[in-house]
Amino acid sequence: MSALLRQIPANIPQDIRKIRIENSHLTELPRGSFENVSALEYLWLNFNNITVMHIKSLEYLPALKELRLQGNKLSSVPWTAFQDTPTLKILDLKHNRLDVLPEHALRYLPNLTYLDLSSNQLTIISRDVFYNWPVYQRSQRMEGPQEAISNAVLALHDNPWICDCRLRGFVQFIKSVGPPIILMNSYLTCSGPKFRTGKFFHEVELNSCTKPLTSALDTNLTVPAGLNITLTCFVQASPSPAVWWTYALKLLRAFNVSTEPISEDTVRSELLIPAARPADAGNYTCTAANFLGNTSVAISLRVVAPWASTTPRGWAPGPAEPGAHVEVRIAKQTVYGITLEWFAAAAAAAEPGETWYTLLVGRYDAAQKDTIYIGPGVNTYSVTDLLPATKYEVCVAVRNQAPRKGQCVVFVTGSDVSQMEQREKLIHIVVIVCAMVLAVPAGMYACTAEALPGCLARCPSACPRRRRGGSAQAAGSKESTLDSLPAGSEDGLCRPEGGRGARDRAEPGKPRQPHRNSADLY
């Protein structure tokens, strides 16, 4: 008890008749676990962690009468292993994780008087499991009281039984069973489906299993654009089938599909199409399947304009009905689109659950705009895939009325030129400007820097007299260019007050000084 054993000890004496190992750390029963104790009659391995039981784990135990494996973690049992224990009378498997009981499970337990399968995970089992049990077969062949048959106690309570057509045979067996088979607890209860949860077996009548049969009230629908459309199909089947919808060979998202039972053998499946558009038109297929097969029904959907539009083909807004004004604003704008919000005022807001809107979208200079119909209860819409750096206009009106002033928004989409591209363009401009500046001769800078300071110092007093000199100075001004200046002098630009104007005139018979250009300064 509570020993730190992880496997069956190998040195068990051969004449041991009873072994009890509980609350230990055993995790499996390997092959030949008890091959050296062939005299063993009682084996208790309760409340361990056994998850695996080898098909030959009970080999060499022909005298075993009692096997208790309560409180372990077995999800399956190799039932053919009991061929090696023909005298077994007590088998305790309660509080495990068994979820399957095959038809041959009890075939190799002919002398069993106590079988406990309670508190497991059994949901569906066949009545053939017990019809193939030798104890039950002997009770059916009993012809008179002279033939005594030992009673067999059967415990099957506290399992999550699913009471549908698959359990029909087992429920009938439980209702009809009698001595020598005795139920420890005859009040077995259903855990599903929901409408049978908590009911006792003797309270339910289960039908035979049937293949799904699908149908629809209308297989051809024509609906206006913008409406919330619900497609409905009905499935009659037992057990309850799995139902799914497909469109253009694609499985539709589950959160748009709801399936619920409306009777014992009938379920209703609905597919919601919010704000139907012409692109939603086509064939929708409702498919149902259970273990007997599958079937389907197709519903053809056609989406048309909800009304004949009274809005002109052009964009010019016209007068709207009183009380139908809509306030429109831009909630978000990106390079390629915007998100609009609008709020209907006055009569339009009186019944928001029934108010439809018409959205007109297009380039500002376009003669015709795209029309989008928005269903009731929606007051936002995102326009995407617009051209960058383009001027657009969007108008929102109630129903098919022409938009009026204040219901249109004009906006310009952003540029798709990235920040990196803008930076590269700026670098190119700077490089070009620098190249142009460097191309100017260096002499121009030197000459200008040397000549301008002296000029600025004397020009204020000399320039007034130059204006009074008249035509005499006009001739001298022609020669006062940058290339005709004497070396190291600024006299050609400005004259002091000392009356040196005669020096600028050419004297007869005297040769003129040669001109010096800016290159001579260097």
From TrEMBL:
Pfam families: Ig_3, LRR_8
SMART domains: IG, IGc2, LRR_BAC, LRR_TYP, LRRCT
Domain of life of the organism encoding this protein: Eukaryota
Descriptive protein name: LRIT2 protein
Keywords of the record: Disulfide bond, Immunoglobulin domain, Leucine-rich repeat, Repeat, Signal
Gene3D superfamilies with a match to the protein in the record: Immunoglobulins, Ribonuclease Inhibitor
Residue ranges constituting the Fibronectin type-III domain according to the UniProt record: 324-416
InterPro entries noted in UniProt: Cys-rich_flank_reg_C, FN3_dom, FN3_sf, Ig-like_dom, Ig-like_dom_sf, Ig-like_fold, Ig_sub, Ig_sub2
Domain Ig-like: residue ranges: 212-304
Sequence ranges of Basic and acidic residues compositional bias: 492-510
Region (Disordered): 468-522
